[in-house]
Design goal:
Elements lengths: L1 H8 L8 E5 L6 H11 L3 E5 L6 H11 L4 E3 L6 E2 L3 H12 L3 E10 L4 E4 L7 E3 L1 H5 L12 E4 H14 L9 H12 L2 E13 L13 H25 L6 H14 L6 H15 L6 H35 L4
Parallel strand pairs: 1-2, 5-9
Antiparallel strand pairs: 3-8, 4-9, 5-6, 5-8, 7-9
Helix pairs in contact: 6-7, 8-10, 9-10, 10-11
Length: 321
């Protein structure tokens, strides 16, 4: 917490709000924030009554804010190199809805750092912005300066489209899909502005072995991809690798960590069926997706059989002699 604040203090752009969202923490974070508030009047402290997760907490902070732009920072990361004023000035000059910058990824523990690859350059407008969601850009929130009104439109879009869905995890992809649908301009700043601590032991990236966590990720991916599928079919957009690349980037990693999740398998199979029958998927990608689906079906059937045997064994143990 102190390191985040210290990195914010070093920024030359001073006319800002600093909103801390306390997601019903059990550590000493509230006291640290209250001590900082005595020294810095820019700090706003919001506390959730219950643990709501990053999706709810970030959205709450954005809705409470009053500035023109929003920059999201995770609790274990840092912002670097006066990124606030650089990103703000460029966004204002070109009237950008989203500005993305470079990220350093590394570990506080092992003192290792490596640079994140650049995806695009220049400025994208209108239709080009919608087309980059599944490739060419990161789908994280913390490496971007986002116009507040666009961020709020993104929140409203997601609530309208997927109001029955529950997004406890995998929140970046979910809300960024709504933001992309609400944005008309997207720029790239070729400077490092963020340090991402990839080895925080409390981070959600270390929870891939938790069944509920993985199922929630499948759920959000399925809702987003299903909506995108129908949009692309309706508009006859031809992108041969859209679903294919997205699956191998996101879902395949999760699939390898979810051998016992029947619900998770069903999510993947449903989305794969959509793309296998999609007009803009070429034959090579269709075959790969079909093979992938068949593999999942095979493992799912074995797990179902194993689960059935375990259940029958459990009930037989309850029989009276």
């Amino acid at each position: 917490m102190k390191y985040i604040y210290a990195s914010i203090q070093k920024q030359k752009l001073n006319d800002i709000e600093i909103i801390f969202i306390d997601d019903n923490s059990k550590d000493n974070s509230p006291q640290i924030i209250k001590n900082l508030m005595k020294k810095d009047k820019r700090i706003i402290y919001l506390k959730n009554k219950d643990n709501k997760g990053a999706f709810y907490s970030r959205n709450r902070g954005v809705l409470f804010s009053s500035g023109e732009y929003v920059l999201v920072i995770d609790p274990d990361d840092l912002i670097l190199n006066n990124i606030l004023i650089k990103a703000y000035e460029i966004s204002k000059y070109y009237d950008l809805d989203i500005l993305q910058y470079y990220v350093l990824r590394g570990s506080y523990i092992n003192n290792t750092i490596w640079k994140r690859n650049k995806y695009k350059s220049g400025i994208l407008v209108n239709k080009e912005v919608k087309d980059v969601f599944f490739y060419s850009v990161t789908r994280t929130l913390w490496d971007k300066l986002i116009k507040r009104e666009v961020f709020i439109k993104g929140i409203n879009f997601m609530e309208k489209q997927f109001q029955r869905e529950k997004y406890l995890v995998h929140s970046d992809d979910t809300i960024f899909w709504g933001i992309i649908n609400s944005a008309n301009s997207y720029g790239f700043l070729e400077q490092i502005g963020y340090f991402y601590n990839s080895e925080n032991p409390t981070s959600t990236i270390h929870r891939y072995f938790v069944p509920d966590f993985i199922n929630d990720i499948f759920h959000s991916l399925f809702a987003t991809l299903k909506y995108y599928y129908f949009q692309t079919e309706e508009n006859e957009i031809e992108k041969n690798f859209v679903g294919y690349k997205f699956f191998y980037e996101k879902i395949y990693k999760l699939y390898n960590n979810s051998i016992n999740l029947t619900k998770g398998f069903n999510y993947i199979i449903n989305v794969l069926n959509l793309y296998i029958n999609c007009k803009f998927i070429n034959e090579t990608a269709k075959k790969n997706l079909t093979d992938f689906r068949n593999t999942i079906r095979y493992i799912k059937s074995k797990n179902d059989l194993l689960r059935e045997k375990k259940t029958n064994k459990f009930y037989s143990s309850l029989e009276f002699n």
